[in-house]
Amino acid sequence: MTQSNNPISARLASAVPYIRRGARVVDVGTDHAYLPIYLLREGLAAAALAADINKGPIEVARANIAAAGLADVIETLCTDGLHGAQDFQPDHILVFGMGGELIVKILSEAPWVRDPRIRLILQPMSRSATLRAWLLENGFSILGETITYEEKYYQTLAAVWSGEKECYNEVELMLGRYNIKRRPPLFDGFLRHEIQVLEHIIAGKSRGQNVDPTEEIGMKNALEALL
After folding, report:
1. Which of 110, 163, 218, 222 gives a 20 to 30 Å CA spacing to 63?
2. In the predicted model, is pLDDT for residue 18 greater than 50?
3. Counting beta carbons within 10 angstroms of the beta carbon of residue 96, is it exposed (0 to 12), middle (13 to 18) or buried (19 or more)?
């Protein structure tokens, strides 16, 4: 089934504000290629490479791309992460729908992304603090952040290599410095959700033996101070 005439979800649409018009986009883990199709159909990108590690999604992506009449401007690649994607010479790299640790692995295996001309647009499904910490330690500057809700909260962030290391505190790594400063509409709900997660962890540790919840209690107190 194709999605050639339907709008993309809010979760995927969170990438749009960070796309520079005329972009050459690589979409890692493209699944059905909904996001590249949208970007090309709306004139937001000039060309795209839809990449996925599995042949099944690539075959569906090709069918959707053909149905949308975009086979001349959207290529497909069956590959692990970004291997081989450098030949496309992208200036935007999208990685949505993966855990923060896996995104770190993908970026670590592609040193060519350390290029100020390439914008990373990332949406970790988990471990967002791990991803932010890796980006900042490895010379990437975070340009912006977005929170969306689609059955759960998602964080989308844009970053570019500057070569300068930056340091965030633990709260900023978890929530995002831009989100804390700007407090977008979904921020308070997202903040309360993270507090509830910590409360659950604290309760579990408190029932165990020789398990110290002090770190989680400190983080919970820091988050509650933002309410």
Report:
1. 110
2. yes
3. buried
